[in-house]
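User: Quick sanity check before I run a bigger batch. Here is a single chain. Can you write out its predicted 3D structure?
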Amino acid sequence: MQIGILECGRLPDEMSATLGQYPPMFERLLAGHGFRFRSWHVEGMDFPDSVTAADGWLITGSRHGAYEDHAFIPPLEAFIRDAFAAHVPVVGICFGHQIMAQALGGRVEKFAGGWAVGAQDYDFDTGPIRLNAWHQDQVVTPPETAQTVARNAFCAHAGLLYPGQGFSVQAHPEFPDSVVQGLIDHRGPGIVPDPLLKAAQSGLGRADSQPVAQRIASFFRHNAQVRA
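Assistant: Done. Predicted structure follows.
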């Protein structure tokens, strides 16, 4: 089964030199589930020829806002809608979670409550899970077709399920602690309030991505029509 990774952003050069980029992180997150992977850098306008070029799609994070004016956003939204229409399953992470919701009629905005960075506790429909996060934008109004399956006091729609078609989470299950540390060092100062950065630092080592990795893998397996 092939999973197509739609790369919507890249980590800063000072981080990627040692930590890599999003696609290998997702490959490690989903290792052991029998998937093959291929990546397209959609932020750079490299799109698949068809929504059936992979058996399922995974949309990554990005430094961009889903509501911003960037060339890749309208065709990405159209691709999401076309994938849903063709019954090809889609998973979104952080920006991917947001752009899926926006493409399907929801609303995303820069949250007035500020940032969530580092390990965060979420109430999933399957029980509590602690995941690494790094965001200010969030889904404030889900699409009518979505079910909220994860939340906390800061983020009311931290996980969305589109039955049989899509699953998305606001947090970053693919982020190891080394990436969070890199963001604390290179993207946090002067942007994220110092108390939040200190809390993120002290929370290193406390996240557990495996429950969400298992759910993503199960979602793909149960909803994909594997193509030769």
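The CA atoms of residues 39 and 114 lie 32 Å apart.

User: Great, the batch can go ahead then.
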